[in-house]
TrEMBL record:
It comes from Lactiplantibacillus plantarum subsp. plantarum. It is a multi-pass membrane protein. Pfam families: Glycos_transf_2 (PF00535). One of its GO terms (molecular function) is dolichyl-phosphate beta-D-mannosyltransferase activity. This is Dolichyl-phosphate beta-D-mannosyltransferase. Its main location: membrane. SUPFAM superfamilies: Nucleotide-diphospho-sugar transferases. Keywords: Glycosyltransferase, Membrane, Transferase, Transmembrane, Transmembrane helix. The keyword Membrane applies. It is an enzyme of class 2 (transferase). Residues 7-176 form the Glycosyltransferase 2-like domain. It is found in: Membrane. GO terms for cellular component: plasma membrane. The lineage of its organism: Bacteria, Bacillati, Bacillota, Bacilli, Lactobacillales.
Length: 225
């Protein structure tokens, strides 16, 4: 297998507090993958600014000058997390053999990205990042998450427990996903049903190192409707 071209897609909404550190960490991981010939030297970090009202876009433009791996995409207004992911995949799909999506706060452990790539090279089209516990959450967060999964099950949405939007997708999986024409997709409900070879990769979710969560229970439920 030739070294696949990877695009790491990072949706951003008012993430000025975390972007400099997150970009530094992700660039280090991507550069290491390139140096070890696990991915193509043309691989990129794509930061998608989802209509931020802070200095997120200004920081992305600065990061483009600081890191050769970084590129940016800016929305004119806030279209939502799932649409930011879809736009990133649409931009990446013509050239990227694989994409990985990860939120800007890096609570999903970016150190497992090399293992995601290894799983792809071993034959998986989809690698789902699944947190192995919720010990880093508050009691209230655990309670609301449990309620969310019970609600989704009752309305017939089959989800992989503790999998959010940290995942690897092959080019053919991305192209299949992009055939969905709905404007409000709930990706974590669709991706597991695409039908391609899939594995789960378990990891420990980290506390957020700066800023605040953009996705309370209200927004999570809204994703589905």
């Amino acid at each position: 297998m030739q070294n696949p071209r990877l695009t790491i897609i990072v949706p951003c909404y008012n993430e000025e507090a975390v972007l400099p550190k997150s970009a530094h960490i992700l660039d280090g991981i991507l550069t290491d993958l390139i140096q070890h010939k696990q991915v193509n030297a043309a691989s990129k970090l794509l930061f998608v600014d989802d209509g931020s009202q802070d200095k997120t876009w200004k920081l992305i433009k600065s990061l483009e000058k600081q890191y050769s791996t970084v590129t940016g995409l800016k929305f004119s207004r806030n279209f939502g997390h799932q649409n930011a992911l879809m736009a990133g995949m649409q931009v990446a799909s013509p050239t990227a053999e694989i994409v990985i999506t990860i939120d800007a706060d890096l609570q999903d452990d970016p150190q497992v990205i090399p293992e995601m790539v290894a799983r792809y090279r071993a034959g998986s089209d989809i690698v789902l990042g699944v947190r192995n516990d919720r010990s880093s959450d508050s009691l209230f967060k655990r309670w609301t998450a449990d309620g969310f999964y019970r609600l989704m099950k009752r309305i017939g949405v089959q989800l992989v427990p503790n999998h959010a939007d940290f995942r690897l997708l092959s080019q053919r999986a991305v192209q299949a996903l992009l055939t969905y024409e709905e404007t409000n997709l709930f990706l974590r409900g669709i991706v597991p049903r695409l039908g391609f070879p899939t594995t789960k990769l378990y990891y420990h979710r980290q506390p957020r190192f700066a800023g605040v969560s953009k996705y309370p229970l209200r927004k999570m439920v809204a994703f589905c409707f």
